[in-house]
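Hey,

Quick one before I head out. I ran the complex with D-malate overnight. Inputs first:
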Amino acid sequence: MKLTPDVFITGRSFLEDEVKGKTVIVIDVLRAASTIITALQNGSKGIIAVEDMGTAGRIAQNLDSSSYLLCGEKDGEKIEDYHLGNSPVEYEESVVKGKTLIFSSTNGTPTLVRCSGAKEVIIGSFLNAKAVTDYLRTIDNEIIFVCSGWKSRLSFEDTLCAGYMLHQLVGTVLPVSSPDGACVAFALYQQFGSDITDSVKNSNHAERLRKLGFEQDIDYCCQTDVSDCIPVMEDGVIVRKV
Ligand code: MLT
């Protein structure tokens, strides 16, 4: 790693051209990235991230119905008639092993689609942060953390996670002249990183999820460095790198 990675604060705060040639880590702590990591860890064959339900339906029409599951949420709630919602705890081995998942979410999957022109697209969250940063240390390419956010707005938990990964990469002092996005994420982690679960529980999206009855997802997604699964996008399908 040569330069301090930049942090794009939402999935819409950049032009698609800006990620070309870069290594991008798409973060959506609550919950799309955490769900994707869990699904691949539990043996899903691959995940096709789509920006909307119409695209999901068109892809499904061309697949054998026993080979895929339609997955995802709109505003946090499971989409009617889909097999699975976006709660990572639903993605058990008995459900997802060997299956292709067609996955649509409010912010995470549209962000993934916007980043698909990057040289390398990795999916990261607190669950696999160490595995991701261990990998990033081995490459020379320019790195950008892209926080999915919520409907063009900043999400506390995504920015905090970018700060956590930056902290793992650079240590306790951010190099001078680091990009502003990196400075903000790093400072957020310095301020709130001593109790990730507690601070994420105060975030806007955690409150939204609690109201929808997904309290256990918040605890699950705040676990740090518990997965060595690194999801990467290859020819439009997210598969397990390691
Ligand atoms: C998203 O993509 O916006 C999220 O993953 C929403 C959610 O928590 O389901």
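The mean pLDDT is 97.

Talk tomorrow,
K.
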